[in-house]
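Please check our next protein.
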Amino acid sequence: MELKEDLVRTQILETGCNNKQYRSGFTLIELLVVLIIIGITATLITVNFNSLNSIEKQSNSFQKTVNFLTEESIITGNTIGLYLSSDKQFAEYLTDDKKNKIDSNYKNTFWSDTSSLRKTFKFEDGSIIELNDQMLELPMMIFYPSGENSGGQIDIYHSNYIQRLIIFSNGQITDEIISY
């Protein structure tokens, strides 16, 4: 009897067990499907994370511009105007006698990277203008020597979302993503 049990154990070890009671584990196809799902999920998370990092870098870049102009206005005691078009930005001192452009060291790639995208600017009074390739004669934002600014909201229309930069009068900026 013992010999027969040893023989059965040997056969089971060599050929496997077809009895469902002893069957455990996953088939190769099940493991491959799970690995494919994990791979696709990891790829999607990485792509979304990279695009969020890119958006954050862009808003940080515009934050640097706002910070620079706020500090420049406080230090010099002059009122500064920020001019925007769809692809360019510049700032200049707003004085009664003449206008002087500010050193362009504050420039960043944020505005040029988004030059092909539609942009709008919403003033504090609620009026909205479309930023196109023509530079307006009036500044979009004004920076005062007190450290405040006129504020506003910039909407940048990407292919599947809107990036909204809200500039508060104290110089803080919030960055929101709005899905279509």
Remarks:
- Residues 27-179 form a domain with the minor pseudopilin epsh fold fold (CATH 3.55.40.10).
